[in-house]
Amino acid sequence: MPVLFDQKETSTPVGLAGRIAASARMTSSRMSPDIDEWLREKRRQPFESTLITLEELTRSPGWSFAAETGNLCHRSGRFFTVEGLHVTADDGEAWWQPVLVQRDIAILGIIAKEFDGVLHFLLQAKMEPGNIGMVQLSPTVQATPSNYTRVHRGGPARYVEYFTEPGRGRVLVDVLQSEQGAWFHHKRNRNIVLEVTDDVPVHRDFCWLTLGQIHRLLHRPNVVNMDTRTVLGCLSGVAPEPVGVHTMTEILSWFTGHRSRQRLSARLVPLNRLAGWRRGADRIAPEDGEGPFSIVGVRVRAHTREVTSWRQPLLAPHATALAGLMVRRLNGRLHALVRAEALPGYRDVVELGPTVRSVAAGRPAATADQEELLEHLLSAPPRRVRYDVVQSEEGGRFLHAQTRYLIVEAPDDFPLSVPPEYAWISIGQLHALQQHSYYLGIELRTLLFCLSAL
């Protein structure tokens, strides 16, 4: 397989970027367990996540439908709610959909520590009710304030004090990032990596892994969870002045122009007023039986969690999504074809997405430009496919949500001229933008992290 990365961009620099590169080269460590056997052991534990009716979900204290709005809420007023959303685009398109509203800013935190001169990262084998395989590798801490302040009256979240108490270590990255703009309303998480020098007692459900070991696991489906991918993706070391066929000033101007011109209007509405949706016995679903997703309830048992049993709603997609990225070398540097994408749940309306992403909740069919690009991605010969793995999305809010992440190298005769909402941006420039909030959507962040594993 050809090497995609420009050696000038990835030659070992001084400082953090060099340490990240060294960790990425290390594919074994005395600090790590036999990861295959370790994960098999964790997945053999008696976890349960069972679909239940909405009546059972709301029968006992916990979740209920609000009398006036029909919104699905927790009795504490915390965690998250399922509400309605009415969306109107500037071209007159309009649709209704349920949306997850989580106002708490969650901590997605990873502890890093150097062993034998190499950075290692403390990951957790975490059970989430919506996970494929039940257990996946999550950050050291993956918790909302509702969790770590123990609104659920359960046990404390392990290691959260490293991220809530000052002075625990050296911050390597700390940035607010969005999640799925089609399913969440203004959701954001704090992505943080903290390097420590003190001894860290390692609980049996946690282990140290190098970046190289994590990269290898990225080639398997449903092992490295969404939150680990986004946090470590933000850690990418970048050159002081990343360059590409466009300057950073040109890119920022193009991006800001799209943000300023978008007139996508999204307003929260009562769940019981959603046109085209029906609350049945076992789910909230589109009346026509189709559509992108439903809202369901699950009953959960997990003895490794702070609370060992609970009920909760989950968003259940009806199909596997696709996030496809076209890449090519321009002036000797690897570039990606990205799209300025407007989604109703984004705080700033527009973030950078992959070349093709499907399916945005409730939206009509893709444009002709997107259809043509999708055809390029799906018809690429195997020699040009650089990455093609199905990965899970967040199992704490979604039931078996999967996305096929696809990276294809464009042929030399692929046109440089692209539609106005697209741009060729170098990988170094994308990594630089990722150090800031709300520039890159979560699917593009995952694709960049997967690209680094090649």
From TrEMBL:
<dbReference type="InterPro" id="IPR038153">
    <property type="entry name" value="EvaA-like_sf"/>
</dbReference>
<feature type="domain" description="dTDP-4-dehydro-6-deoxy-alpha-D-glucopyranose 2,3-dehydratase">
    <location>
        <begin position="249"/>
        <end position="451"/>
    </location>
</feature>
<dbReference type="InterPro" id="IPR005212">
    <property type="entry name" value="EvaA-like"/>
</dbReference>
<dbReference type="Pfam" id="PF03559">
    <property type="entry name" value="Hexose_dehydrat"/>
</dbReference>
<protein>
    <submittedName>
        <fullName>Oxidase EvaA</fullName>
    </submittedName>
</protein>
<feature type="domain" description="dTDP-4-dehydro-6-deoxy-alpha-D-glucopyranose 2,3-dehydratase">
    <location>
        <begin position="34"/>
        <end position="235"/>
    </location>
</feature>
<dbReference type="GO" id="GO:0016829">
    <property type="term" value="F:lyase activity"/>
</dbReference>
